[in-house]
Every structure is written in structure tokens, then in C-alpha cells.
Amino acid sequence: RPLTVVVVNNGGGGIFRFLPINGSVPSEEFTSLWETPTSGIDIGALCRAHGIPHQKVRAAADLRGALSGSWTCNRHCVVEVVVGSAGAEALDAERQANVDFHGTIKASIAADAKRAVALMSGRSSAELATPFDMGLPLPTSFKIVRLSLSPYDLACQAPLTSTDDPARAWRRSGLILRCELAIDGKDSRPAVGVGEIAPLPGLHAESIHQAHDQAAVLCRLLEGLELPLGG
């Protein structure tokens, strides 16, 4: 059966700009050594070299027509969807704006984390209103007070794509893992975390029953364990 491959071309996304080295070396060196190239990548030329039909679209409204055309030609095809601004300067500005936006989010998360540490360490509300640059004492250890598993089984609005078994495709089963941690041995105000264990039928080797048994054993082994922080 002919295959249509949709390639989302975002110019590499600029993910390497999130490296800590960005900003500490000259921009010319960073661009040449680490940055994803913004030009010189011609997917159409690559397709032509291998005799594969290629279409390039820039607007969502044009994607439907490109897909329809590829399906009717009865051959393997590539549809390239170009996202982002055209031109190296505009793309560079978009990448930097993305880095700045994530930096703002990280700063907000760091402030919230420091506030949480202050609450766990028993700081007063007056101290919470002061800047956090003074260096709050971090916990020295965590103790796993309690681990619990709660199974769930839900009906799906659409069948799972990982299995063709109709008996399993319309149900989603899993486990909710609840972990209670004592901070520096203080059991009165445990920190609580919640996670999920949910193997997909047809994708993961373990069944939900096997995953439950494995997790239950780990819970019994880990309860009461003290975890020191730091090197």
C-alpha cells in the first residue's frame, strides 16, 4: 500500500538554544557549532533525487488538497508542511522569543519551588514575602512513609491504536500510585506525590496485572526507606 509521509519542517525548532552554553559563547561560534541550520535543507531536492513525489504547503487550508493529491497518485509521497516565519532573520527572532518565553516559565517555577521549600521548612508568612535569594535551608532527607496503589478501569471514547484486540481496545486500565514522604523525619506534614502506571496493550510487554504485581513488590520494599539528599 502506498505510504504518504507528512514532514513538519520547522527549521529544526532551535532546540539547541536551550543548552546552557547558549549565551556564554559568541553567537557566531554557537551558530556554527551547535545551532540547527536554518537554510540549505531542501527536502524537495532529496525527494527528487529518489524519484519520490513531493509537495510543499505553508497553510493549513492547503494541506487537505495536498493529501488528497498524494492519495490519488497511488505512489509513495512526501508532503512537506513548512511552519514558522519565512526568512532566516524572522526564524531567528521566533527561536529567541521561544527561548525567552521558556525562561519566563522556568523563573516562575523556580519561585514556586522556593515558596514550597519555605512552607515545608516552617517559614513564617512574613519570611515568605521576602526575596528568596537569601538561601533557604533545603531538606537533608526524605523518608518514604507510605506507598499505595489504586487500580482504575475506564471506558474509552475511541479505541486504542496500540492493539487490534476489540476486547482490550475500548478499555483503559491502570494504577494510581500515591507516595507520602516525610521531610527530615517530620511525619506530621508529609509531602504527597501521585503518579500513574498504565501499560498499553499491544505496546508494552507487561499486562496490567503483571505491572500491579511488580509495583506492589516495589512498594513493600521501599516503604520506610530514608533517602538522603546531596552528594
Automatic annotation (TrEMBL):
Transmembrane segments: none annotated. InterPro entries: Enolase-like_N, THDP-binding. It comes from the Eukaryota. This is Thiamine pyrophosphate enzyme TPP-binding domain-containing protein. It comes from Tetraselmis chuii.
